[in-house]
Amino acid sequence: MPHDLRVFAYLIDPSKSVGNRQAPMSGVLINGKQHVFAEIAFAPLGFVLTGDVDPINFSLLDITPFGHSAFHHRETAFLKLPVVQISTWLPGDFRSKEQVARDVASNEVMGRVDLNVF
Hints:
This protein is an alpha+beta fold. It has one domain. It has one helix at residues 97-114; strands spanning 6-12, 21-30, 33-42, 45-50, 61-62, 83-84. Strands 1, 2, 3, 4, 5 and 6 form a six-stranded mixed sheet that branches. A hairpin with a 2-residue loop joins strand 3 and strand 4. The chain is globular.
């Protein structure tokens, strides 16, 4: 694997998630910082591939060093993977259903007030 790429892993919360997700290289701006990444998430695991220094979500576990091991190398490792929710089809979005509903309501109000829409 190229040394400028990083891989992050997580567990999908089966009781609060609504499905799986697969996204090719995507870009998103969060607080003025650009993130470019690809994601694949099929229960129970999800992975994010990025060339960025920082992950899209700081709770994700960096498993990049596993890619630098010899092919036949075996070792037991106990990993503390974060458990996240998948509530939307948007790559890198780990908000809960409640957070998504609040954000939608907030954006609707902003649209009415600031843009005189609706």
